[in-house]
Amino acid sequence: MQYKLGVLKGDDIGLEVVPAAVKVMKESLANFPEVDVEWVDLPIGHTAYVESGETFPQETQDKLKELTGWILGPIGHMAYPKDDPKAINPHPIIRKVFDLHSNVRPSRSFDNVQSIHKDVDLVVVRENNEGFQPDRNMFAGTGEFMPNPDLAMSVRVISRRNSTAVAESAFELAMQRRKKVTAIHKDTVYKLGCGLFVECCRNVAKNYPEVEFDELIVDSAAAALVMKPQKFDVLVTTNMFGDILSDLTSGLVGGLGMAPGLSIGSEYSMAQATHGSAPDIAGKQLANPYAMILSGKMLLEWLAIKYDDQAMLQAAQAIEKAVSEVIIKGIMTPDMGGSATTEEMTEAICNQLSKKI
Ligand code: ATP
Ligand code: MG
């Protein structure tokens, strides 16, 4: 298998944390020379706009189709002219075009990282293309419109197809973990939308008798996550609830710098940390590379499972182990309670990986 992996740095802290993640991935893969990876740099975001007048150049759009997967940095949205059609946010388009229906967002606590809770190890699996981002062909923009200047309406789309796909992603993940899935919804209010979503989850649950399945209303889930996050393993939910709850769970374990993510479909996979471009700390070596490095690790793990590649799996697992060891040593960025720069933390992880296993 020859893997072709894209590197799309994006903007602001993306220019620091994406190269950090790629460096770590390459360092780990160097221990497995049988894994053949070609890396392809592709421009995107504000940085690309300044260079070529487009945030999502056609060349980038075409090349993505030839890749096995890619790592994508955050897109800064401050400086774009609002009315320029070439200054678009590429994220929703990529998720849609490549049918990346599930967004997997783990939250894991470390004893010596400042956080509200310890012993947290859970994953939010969020539907990625519906809810507040309905089909762009069906509804203009985000599915919102104003019938008159005093009334705004938002259309929420939930389909059987995507609800089933995201539930399957969650149950597959649970099989590799502690075998528990909790579906989060609000079918007391959204009887049709959430009703359909949870019906799909129940149907998928029947195919996984060894996985414990339960359901929770989103407001109760928010309270339970703050009070007793340790009781959760995999949570599966719709787009907007997942957006909010996954930021909440990152807050439980130390903040956005601790929140990796992977968007997956049946063919493609995209590593993308939960955080945005954080312009306030960009260029200062303050960005926590953990989220992006672990997103890269999730990409390698997904590829390993898809292509049944044991060496790739070991390369992925070695990254997680090295990161944990560096955190235990206390080499971490200020948001985690340490004093290391982005580069120092990255370098320490690479050094850990280059000690042959
Ligand atoms: P977006 O709308 O693009 O999601 P946002 O408004 O949610 O952006 P972020 O860019 O995600 O905001 O960042 C919010 C704050 O969290 C930042 O200002 C920064 O202080 C902190 N932050 C985010 N990512 C990191 C990181 N990797 N390391 C350290 N701090 C971070
Ligand atoms: Mg955000």
TrEMBL record:
GO terms for molecular function: 3-isopropylmalate dehydrogenase activity. Its EC number is 1.1.1.85. Keywords: Oxidoreductase. Residues 4-349 form the Isopropylmalate dehydrogenase-like domain. It holds the Pfam family Iso_dh. InterPro entries: IsoCit/isopropylmalate_DH_CS, IsoPropMal-DH-like_dom. SUPFAM superfamilies: Isocitrate/Isopropylmalate dehydrogenase-like. The keyword Metal-binding does not apply. Belongs to the isocitrate and isopropylmalate dehydrogenases family. This is 3-isopropylmalate dehydrogenase.
